[in-house]
Design goal:
Blueprint (H helix, E strand, L loop, with lengths): L12 H15 L10 E11 L5 E10 L1 H11 L9 H15 L6 E5 L2 E2 L9 E5 L2 E8 L12 E6 L6 E4 L6 E4 L5 E6 L3 H7 L6 H5 L7 H4 L2 E6 L7
Parallel strand pairs: 1-8, 1-9
Antiparallel strand pairs: 1-2, 2-6, 3-4, 3-7, 5-6, 7-11, 10-11
Length: 234
């Protein structure tokens, strides 16, 4: 199989649309058959304002060598085996426009409820050590405050299963300005345990249309911030 047939379904849609549809038809009917073809190491830096409001999420994704090489060949219009400034801008625009429908793979939950995120305005692509980097910042569309008695979580997850974007180390999830009375921890769900715990919700409809279900709530590595209720004592 040509690697171009398994590159991200959100990247260069005209280039891979037919192949992606064929692969999705074959890979997504069951969760067991769905598996990532592209890998990225991620870093997330969460900044909290002094009043406890989420100020921004700073994302960095570093993609694997093979996928990075494929992107380089596709966007290297002048054939000099590197991406110049204009080619990187073009790549950034394509990525920005394509992953918007997937909410930039962001998973932000306030007490289990989805938090709508504003569209990033600074997404950029770059190459470092021959690996593709995607860098952007985002923030909630409406102010999100870390309030006492609430639990808020942050992470990334590709609902198509084509990309495994994960944090290699707990230190790749950073909080700046954590309010007093709040604690932060990294949660890494065990896939088998997650499936067992959510068995009642994993219906035929779930497996036949996994993109219609937010599986990030089940499987995604996340940074979880828990703020104690006011007046709680040890």
């Amino acid at each position: 199989m040509e690697f171009s047939m398994v590159v991200l379904p959100w990247l260069k849609r005209g280039f891979i649309q037919s192949a992606a549809i064929a692969l999705l038809a074959g890979c997504l009917p069951t969760l067991a058959l769905a598996h990532p073809h592209v890998f990225a190491d991620a870093r997330l830096e969460l900044t909290i304002a002094p009043d406890g409001t989420v100020q921004q999420l700073a994302h960095v994704w570093r993609f694997d060598d093979v996928f990075s090489s494929t992107v380089l060949m596709e966007f290297d219009k002048n054939g000099d085996l590197k991406l110049d400034k204009n080619e990187l801008i073009d790549l950034g625009h394509v990525i920005n426009g394509s992953i918007a429908e997937f909410k930039y793979f962001q998973t932000v939950l306030d007490d289990g409820k989805d938090v709508k995120m504003a569209r990033p305005t600074d997404l950029a692509a770059d190459f470092t050590d021959n690996r593709l980097l995607i860098v952007f910042t985002s923030k909630p569309e409406m102010p999100l405050k870390l309030a006492a008695g609430h639990k808020v979580s942050f992470g990334v997850y590709d609902p198509t299963f084509y990309t495994a974007i994960d944090y290699m180390h707990d230190s790749d999830l950073v909080v700046k300005g954590l309010p007093a009375g709040c604690t932060a921890k990294v949660v890494r769900p065990n896939p088998d345990e997650a499936l067992a715990q959510n068995q009642a919700t994993l219906t035929d409809a779930f497996f036949n249309d996994p993109m219609g279900t937010d599986m990030s709530k089940i499987f995604a590595t996340r940074l979880e911030i828990d703020c104690e209720p006011k007046g709680k004592t040890g």
